[in-house]
Amino acid sequence: MIMCAESSMREAYGKTLVELGKENKDIIVLDADLSQSTQTFMFAKEFPKRFFDCGIAEQNMMGIAAGLAASGKTVFASTFAVFASSRCFDQVRWSIAQPHRNVKIVATHAGVTVGEDGASHQSIEDLALMCALPGFTVIVPADAIETSQAVRAAATDCGPYYIRLPRPKSAVLYGDNYQFVMGKAVTMRDGKDATIIATGLMVERALQAAEELIKGGLDARVLNIHTLKPLDGKAIIKAARETGAILTVEEHLRQGGLGSRVAQIVAEYCPVPMTLMGIKDSYSLSGKPDELLAIHGLTASNIAEKAIGLVYKKFKSHPDSKK
Amino acid sequence: MLLIKEMQDKAKLLRRHIIKMIAEANSGHPGGSLSAVDIITVLYFHVLHHDPKNPLWPDRDRFILSKGHAAPALYAALAEAGYFPIEELLTFRKTNSRMQGHCDVMATPGVETSSGPLGQGLSFGIGCALAARLDNQKYYTYVLLGDGECDEGQVWEAAMSAAHYKLDNIIAIIDRNGIQLDGRTCDIMNTEPLDEKWRAFGWHVIIVDGHDIYKLELAFDEAKMIKGKPVMIIANTVKGKGVSFMENKAEFHGKPPTKEQAAQALKELE
User: Fold this and answer.
1) Do A7-171 and A186-317 show the same overall fold?
2) What distance in Å separates residue B151's CA from the closest CA in chain A?
3) Looking at the partner chain, which of A60, A68, A93 has a beta carbon nearest the beta carbon of B130?
4) Least Cα separation, residue A227 to chain B (angstroms)
5) Cβ atoms of residues A116 and A287 within 8 Å
6) SS3 category, B56
7) Residue A91 in contact with partner chain B when CB distance is under 8 A
């Protein structure tokens, strides 16, 4: 595991857009007055004619994106996750999702780790909203290398994508030889006692939790589900069968995101004890990202603690334990 | 190209289709379809460069029906233009029909985008117009809105941006029939003075009688001469136009005629 270096997923996005712009003249980028934050300014500087700043008008931006896509363009549209999802949900639903337009919504500053800006700017419902849209592909990368590859994969696939990126820098989890495959979960660490399924910034913390757990003799598998939709049902069922317990961790409400979606698969195909970690049904606060994650019980030690409880539940629910 | 008299006959024929479709479906929006039909007739049989045998021809002019509830008027025009058989019009709103209650780009040949939730069409049209400019394509993008639809905030976001981008290859039309579902627009949510608003947003505005075929043709000719800014044609219309008991009646915004009413309407449209 390489976890010494840090890098920015947003910066990786900005740089990848520039590379894509050089390779494909039909790539168009839109932003809603946040290009410095989303990092689309790099593309704007390099290709000013193919960049449109739509101002603080996200609904209009999504419609323009749809019209460009209908005219043969591959369109990237960026703003903060809280605006990209809930602010213009109707426009995304009827101008992009239903006609299956080739629009890639890359939303930054997602989750509570946007931090000090406070609850108004913390998108904690976006995955529930975007996963609800038929035909959308929803991706939450875990590091900068995965971000770059996910953005490339989106650019070469035809159809609507939602890619969710955080504000803070994060650990580099992958080497240069990593190969992102859309819709395919990555086994970050094998294990037999339980499976921790994480997405986005939580993958790093899940790996740290697994290191803590092994010291106490508990061998946890860690799956990175970067693609929430379409979900890698096979990997989830395999994990349920082989480890008998599933813990999900996400920087999002407990409802409607990763945990809910994994639970749907587990309940339907291979019921095993589960624990869903995420934000409980409430809005958050202003604060430092790590302090907020601690308030919501989303640190590595919180994950380790829940994993121990879950394994206990697994053995208690086993038929042999009742004899 | 059709003579004015032939165009008027075509518009009357489309009105007959609209009544038959909505009566057969026993649901739909007659009022706003009948107010928009002369505009749509002029577009499909005079203004638009299009090829019904090749709906996705890259050089085609785009027509976007932003007020998607007027779908019967568009479907009737598409069928008469040859996009699909005229008999198929009577499947409107029925299960497995290619014609949903509101426009569906995935279902109907010739429909440019899905609409229904109001306020979205102009933004989509701006995307089409920007793409044309990027690719040096000569096609025009036409977007038809309702005056009630102008309540939607997104319309004004789009109005601002089309002028900002100096798009002179987009021509929008407002079907100003003065009535929305709940009553007169001046009572429910006053959008007037529409002309001053669009001018203030940086558009060239043309006001025209939306039921006068000849004047509509002239308005589109004028619109295409304007350079450096988008054009809004405000077409003054009558909701339910052509059917005496539907004219200026809010109740026929989304209510189908009874069998007897449909028969009477068709008699008036002979």
Assistant:
1) yes
2) 15
3) A68
4) 26
5) yes
6) coil
7) yes
The answer to whether A19 touches A155, Cβ cutoff 8 Å, is: no
- Does A197 lie at the interface with B, CB-CB under 8 angstroms? no
Query: Hey, is A195 helix, strand or coil?
Result: strand
ipTM above 0.95, yes or no: yes
DSSP assigned state of B74: H
Bridge partners of A161, per DSSP, are A104, A137
Contact B124 A95 (CB under 8 A): yes
Q: What residues contact residue B95 under an 8 Å CB cut-off, 6+ apart?
A: none
Based on the structure, what is the number of domains in chain B?
A: 1
> Structural domain of residue B204, as residue ranges?
4-268
Indicate yes or no: CB of A70 within 8 angstroms of CB of B127. yes
Mark which residues 108-127 of B lie under 8 Å from A by CB.
112-117, 119-127
Residue A257's nearest CA partner among A92, A124, A112, A121 is A124
Mind giving me the DSSP string for B58-73?
A: TTPPEEEESSGGGHHH
DSSP string across B215-257: HHHHHHHHHHH--SS-EEEEEE--TTTTSTTTTT-GGGSS-PP
AA letter at A150: A
| Partners of residue B105 in chain A, C-beta under 8 Å | 99
Exposed / middle / buried, residue B258 (Cβ in 10 Å: 0-12, 13-18, 19+) = exposed
Which tens digit of pLDDT belongs to each residue from A81-111?
999 999 999 999 999 999 999 999 999 999 9
- Which residues in chain A are closer than 8 Å to B160, comparing Cβ atoms? 55, 57, 60
Q: pTM to 2 decimals?
A: 0.97
Distance CA A132, CA B49 (A): 38
Question: What length is written for chain B?
Answer: 270
Selection from A205, A204, A197, A254 nearest residue A227 by Cα: A197
* CA–CA dist B87, B101 (Å, integer): 17
| Rounded CA separation B15/B38 (Å) | 9
Chain B within 8 Å of A67 (Cβ-Cβ)? yes
Q: Which domain CATH number covers B92?
A: 3.40.50.970
Q: Which amino acid is at B266?
A: L
For A209, the token pair is: 């939790």
Domain ranges of chain A: 7-171, 186-317
The tens digit of pLDDT for each residue in A155-198 reads 999 999 999 999 999 999 999 899 999 999 999 999 999 999 99
- Top-level class of domain A186-317: alpha beta
Residues of A serving a catalytic function are: 58
* Superfamily of chain region A7-171: Thiamin diphosphate (ThDP)-binding fold, Pyr/PP domains (3.40.50.970)
